[in-house]
Amino acid sequence: MKKRFLITGFLIFTLLFSFNVSAQKFSDIDKSPHDISYFKAKRNAPPVIKVLYGRPQKKGRNIFGSLVPYGKVWRTGANEATEITFFQDVKLGEQEIKAGTYTLFTIPNKNSWTIIINSDTDVWGSYYYDKDKDVARLDVPTKNTDVVEYFSIAFTKETDGTSMILAWDNISVAVPFSF
């Protein structure tokens, strides 16, 4: 009798547990993984800038002027718009930007890109881009590079700050920040 009770209890527990596990629905993995890039003034110093962005792949496609049209606002990556956090006040060109979190949009063109720092955060894509929320804009020249398969963002140290390098396909741009 005791054995029958234990077996029945075990079967009921197993049955209930299996329904809970099978009821869980998890989303698929993003086709464009997210990444984070940091700039630190010194190796063990706290970060000055952090960028969170989606990394789309080239996959043999024509990117700029095709997949990413010239002259249109781009989310600067994939999926959610790219988010940039400044941990201290910085300058983009001569424009001052207060410490805080912003969205990084760009307008790619053949020979230059417009870099846009926008105060509207937590946005998906660039569908609801609002120019009135721009904090700073700067045009920077494009540079031809070796092909970069995944959209990438990195920082290089400069005398008075950093250059944020955006690269994908065979194009890169350097975005100057000083502080």
Structural account:
There is one protein chain. By secondary structure, the chain is mainly beta. It is built from 1 helix and 9 strands; from the N terminus they run αβββββββββ. It has one helix at 2-23, and strands at 34-40, 47-54, 82-86, 90-92, 95-97, 100-108, 112-118, 134-158, 161-178. β6 (100-108) and β7 form a beta hairpin. The protein starts with a helix and ends with a strand.
Question: How would you classify the helix and strand content by structural class?
Answer: mainly beta
Please give the alpha-carbon distance between the first and last residues: 78 Å
Largest sheet, spatial ordering of strands: 1-2-3-6-7-8-9-4-5
Number of helical segments? 1
Strand content: over 45%
Largest sheet features? 9 strands, antiparallel
Number of domains: 1
The secondary-structure element order is HEEEEEEEEE
Mean pLDDT: 91
Principal-axes geometry comes out as: globular
Radius of gyration: 23 Å
Give the % helix.
10-25%
The counted number of beta strands is 9
Poorly predicted segments = none
